[in-house]
Structures are given as structure tokens and as C-alpha cells.
Amino acid sequence: MALVTSVRDYINRMLQDISGMKVLILDSETVSNVSIVYSQSELLQKEVFLVEMIDSISASNESMSHLKAVYFVRPTSENVQKLRHQLANPRFGEYHLFFSNLLKDTQIHILADSDEQEVVQQVQEFYADFVAGDPYHFTLNMAANHLYMLPAVVDPSGLQRYSDRVVDGIAAVFLALKRRPVIRYQRTSDTAKRIAQETAKLMYQQESGLFDFRRTESSPLLLVIDRRDDPVTPLLNQWTYQAMVHELIGLQDNKVDLRAIGSLQKISKLRWFYHQNRMHSSNRT
């Protein structure tokens, strides 16, 4: 499952069919989705001369009619409202709107009613609503998500937002891969049951036509399990450098921030440890 390739293909399709100078406008989540698979130099090759956040665009009134705006944002109510205000007083010559997941009909009507000057050229759904760390793994970068795995959740609305985000991310992954999975879940976990049932409802009822891909000999399996019933994994040592660095220091969008490590002496020790391990691995092979 080439997740990185799927996201890159979406970005290529967004940018290569729009000629001329462009500004790429992202939100706080899609900026990670794009930056982890696409470099700044590659964006320049696609004639993207400016990358902005949707919040900063809302705060500025500077006219840039010579640029074509390419939006890639999540279809949240907040983003749709920001777009509505920006379309009411357009700063760019053209607007190309791409959303990372499913748009609601009401959101489409809001955007259509806001485009009084007819600057919107297209509205599309490109299902890259996840951060593809490598070809086989993805994350949704959900902070403190472990809180919703506790037996007694004191924030029901927060639990629903968490479940909705997980379902959206899972749906985007399988739409990007053009597969509809068989869904199984851990019966003893209420959280796993909720996520599995809402995902099944989306794929097999609400958007069954969208997920009606050509059948293969073996359908993929989506297994939703509860990490509370996995006591062994936290006790194991990681086997790869990437996983080890993530466990000991932390990876964010495949980047390591050493500013919290402390003095340069500690960083030097870390580098020494890394090189010593590389030499040790080379000797073993």
C-alpha cells in the first residue's frame, strides 16, 4: 500500500493542471500532509511561489490578482466559513478549491452562494486526509488521543470529535487506496466498537457508491483493536532507527526537534551513540 505515492499523486494532480504562478493555501493539518511528502523545491517546479496558511490569508487584504490560489484544506465548518469570507472579497485571480475529505451538500451550497464574483474555477475532493510517514504507515497527528481510551470519558463531545476524526482518516486512506475493507473490531472495547460501526456505516450505507470499487480476490481487512489490551508492545525495544528515535526523542512529520534536548554536549553524545550503533550494525552484517 503506497500511501506516500497516493498523497503525492493527489498533489501532482492539484498543481500540474493549473498553469501559471500559484499560491498554495493550507490549514494546520494539511500542511503536515503536504510537507512530509513534497519538498519546497518540488513545489517551485510546479510554479508554486508562495505557501500560506488559511488563517493568515484571512488576516490580510493585500491584492494578488496575478496569482492563482490553490486551496487544500480539510472540509471543516471553520474552513468553509473562512473560505466564505475570502470569496466575498477575493484577493486572487482564480480560486481552485481542493478538500482532503468528503464535503457535505450544505457546505457546497455555502461556497456556491459566496462566489458572487465567479472566481472559483473548480471544487474537488482529494482524499489525502492523513499524514503518510512512509509507504505503509500513517498517522492523524491527534494530540492526547489516549485520553479517549480511558474507561470513563468525562468529555462525551470530545469523544465524538475524536471518533469522527478517526473515521474520516480511515475513510480517506481507503479512498486513496481505492479499496473497501471488511471491518472487524474488538468486542470488549466500546471505543473500538464505535469507530468500527461508524466506519462501516459510512462505507456501506451513507457513501456506498463512493466506496464501490472493483472487487479483488481478497478484500482488505480493517481490524480495530484497543491498545489497552496490548501489554506486550510497550515493553519491547524498537528494531529500526526511525522507530527508536521516535520512541526516545519524538518524530513530528518525520522531523526531529533537538531544541528540547539541552546542551550541545548532550547532542554530541546523541550523535556519537547513533554513529556507534551504525558501526555496530555494519560489523554485524
TrEMBL record:
Keywords: Membrane, Protein transport, Transport. Gene3D superfamilies: 3.40.50.1910, 3.40.50.2060. It is a peripheral membrane protein. The keyword Membrane applies. Belongs to the STXBP/unc-18/SEC1 family. It is found in: Endomembrane system. GO terms for biological process: intracellular protein transport; regulation of vesicle fusion; vesicle-mediated transport. Pfam families: Sec1. The keyword Protein transport applies. This is Vacuolar protein sorting 45. SUPFAM superfamilies: Sec1/munc18-like (SM) proteins. InterPro entries: Sec-1-like_dom1, Sec1-like, Sec1-like_dom2, Sec1-like_sf. Its main location: membrane. GO terms for cellular component: bounding membrane of organelle; Golgi apparatus; SNARE complex.
